[in-house]
């Protein structure tokens, strides 16, 4: 997590209405612009487009009060959105909730000659996760992945 992402997450979390969950904060480049994406959700029905617009109206002026200002002087674009069906998995509670679901994992280095895995999350603990990964010919194999090796993880919709 970048410094800006951590600052924004720590600052925004206590200001969100209690019915919403702060899922993730992402700071990324899109063309020539920097984008601050704040992903929110609400149980059990999810968040609507109208709610993301309302939250944007709450969050935008709050971001202007962060001292010292962590954002570049050129500015940035703010996006408040739902994490969608394929939500990021970053925190322990995200992985715990995803047990039994189909997930995608990309690692920094190869594990069993691959850097990308898709399959059902079988087990998670603070140091490793185990997925029943799809391999060739429609077969699966249980792969153990150290948490420290994960570059990206998210739930995946299975078709």
Structure description:
By secondary structure, the chain is of the alpha+beta class. It folds into 2 domains: 3-81, RimP-like superfamily, N-terminal (GMP Synthetase, Chain A, domain 3); 92-155, Roll (SH3 type barrels), CATH 2.30.30.180. Helices cover 19% and strands 41% of the residues. The strands form 2 sheets. It has a 5-stranded antiparallel sheet with strand order 7-6-5-4-8. A 3-stranded mixed sheet has the order 1-2-3. The longest helix is centred in the middle third of the chain and has 15 residues, at 49-63. 16% of the residues are buried. The mean pLDDT is 92.
Instruction: Assign the CATH topology of the largest domain.
Output: GMP Synthetase, Chain A, domain 3
Largest beta-sheet details: 5 strands, antiparallel
Helix vs. strand class? alpha+beta
Helix content: 10-25%
Give the integer mean of the pLDDT values: 92
How are helices and strands ordered from N to C?
HEEHEHEEEEE
The count of strands amounts to 8
Counting structural domains, the number is 2
Give, in spatial order, the strands making up the sheet with the most strands: 7-6-5-4-8
Give the strand content: 35-45%
CATH class of the largest domain: Alpha Beta
Task: Supply the CATH superfamily name of the largest domain.
Answer: RimP-like superfamily, N-terminal
Number of helices: 3
Descriptive keywords:
alpha+beta, 8 strands, 3-stranded mixed sheet, 5-stranded antiparallel sheet, SH3 type barrels
Short summary of the structure?
With 159 residues, the chain is α+β, with helices and mostly antiparallel strands. Helices cover 19% and strands 41% of the residues.
């Amino acid at each position: 997590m970048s410094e800006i992402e951590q600052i924004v997450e720590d600052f925004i979390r206590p200001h969100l209405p209690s019915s919403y969950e702060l899922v993730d904060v992402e700071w990324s480049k899109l063309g020539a612009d920097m984008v601050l994406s704040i992903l929110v959700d609400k149980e059990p029905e999810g968040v609507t487009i109208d709610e993301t617009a309302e939250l944007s109206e709450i969050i935008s002026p709050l971001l202007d009060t962060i001292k010292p200002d962590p954002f570049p002087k050129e500015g940035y674009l703010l996006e408040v959105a739902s994490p969608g069906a394929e939500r990021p998995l970053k925190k322990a509670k995200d992985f715990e909730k995803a047990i039994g679901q189909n997930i995608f994992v990309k690692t920094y280095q190869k594990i069993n000659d691959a850097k990308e895995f898709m399959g059902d999350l079988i087990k998670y603990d603070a140091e490793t996760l185990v997925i029943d990964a799809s391999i060739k010919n429609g077969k699966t194999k249980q792969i153990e992945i150290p948490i420290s090796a994960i570059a990206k993880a998210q739930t995946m919709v299975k078709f």
